[in-house]
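Z., the sequence and structure:
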Amino acid sequence: MNLLARIFHGRTAGTLQTQPQPDRAQVRNEAGGYVYALDRWARVDRFLILGSEGGTYYATETQLTKENAVNLVDAIREDGQRVVARVIALSESARAPKVQPAIFALAACAGFGDEETRRYALGEGLRRVCRTGSHLLTFCSYIEQFRGWGRGLRKGLRGWYEGKPVRDLAYQALKYQNREGFTHRDVFRLAHPLATDTERAALYAWIVKGDVPGDEHESLALLRAHAIAKASEDADVATCAELVRASGLPREALPSAWLKEPRVWEALLPTLPMTALIRNLATLTRVGLLTPKGEATARVLARITDRTALRKARIHPIALLAALTTYKAGRGARGSATWTPVPAVVDALDAAFGLAFENVEPTGARTLIGLDVSGSMSSGTIAGIPGITPRVGAAAMALTHVRTESDVQVMAFADRFVPFAIGKTESLDSVVKRTDALPFMGTDCSLPMLYALEKRLPVDLFVVYTDSETWAGTMHADEALRLYRERMGIAAKLVVVGMTSNGFTIADPNDGGMLDVVGFDAAAPALIADFTRGA
């Protein structure tokens, strides 16, 4: 007797996934199956965290972006201030891999919102979401899609410049001189910030005209050091390194020739921001600064495995996953540069990946992780990061459950079971490699529950990582969960982790024992744990 025959013995079968359940409000997904539509606000969250870069198996990037933009505008028109508050919260908590979706949403609020929403977006929203000069210039490139350069926008931009201390603003203007076709000079000509003292006036003159401030302007020493660096491009390495060490010049302000020298990079290390450090691990290795037994290597490893420092720098787990996969490969996705990976750096990135998620206390729940490894999960990218497909990201996130919980089992599925156990001591790199090697198939999201029922596994919590493009089963996933509860006498819960920013979920929104969360939300493991405990 086969699996379904054993399960349904003496009982009427469920509903084919290509048909809607008669007593449920379901919609047709892109694969032809029937699932549940996300509510407007849940889809806003998915967009803010996952973005739409790269599209999905069924939707191009353009189509997915348009769908999310329409949903976002509808949410703004329903309650624009709620959207701004959500954008601020997600941005400041570092739960999203990239800030661009939040900046895009903030610009949309400033364009389509009512007067109060626009004021909120261009005041507190601009200040708290656009924390760097790069963010501000990106915002300026987006805002032109939604509105003109009216009084409210000019006032908001003036407030951004005028509200920063001169020393901090000089650093931002120097480090991020242009982004997305905009320069700070462009913004000044549109917004006309006012200088209220001589220090600020000297900084504004440098931004607009390139005038190097004199020695009397103590807070602008960084700009004078930048002028010296440009004039000393051919200086000896020791002189270059000493200037960097003494001035604190950021990497972006140095002549490109200097960045080929390990002594210059060593001088940069004490002030190199965490994000830049992680992004440049390959360069540090290639120029010879990072070696298996080097002192600089030890300092770098200590920094990238410091949980407090990772959280303070808002390092998202996916940035570490991307860094690990690129660094371990020994060559970049673009260009011809190569390097020999230092094993200790690989191990540190593996450890940092787990540390970058919010700290999670084990729940003790009997947990079954179901990984959708179907063909559609192998298309597109998470947050537009090359090589990080939804199914690679899902497997990486599953590792956090395995390392945290004491009673957890992992299974993979497509339109049939796929053996895929993950051990507590398995490395992130190993999990990613094994995931990449899996075959492509259709999708049946009911299989984790049916598998547990067939094996008589006691499960308190099912966690299914999927894009919800399910269609191949003879029973819907939520039907399978209800059947499992009935047959096993266990009030099992289901968490659906959405790995793409489409508008679908297999979680029944009317069942309090089912929850939809966003994949690669840095808070997802903690949210799942709270739900498991009934919080």
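The first strand starts at residue 27 and ends at 28. The mean pLDDT is 93.

Let me know what you think.
H.
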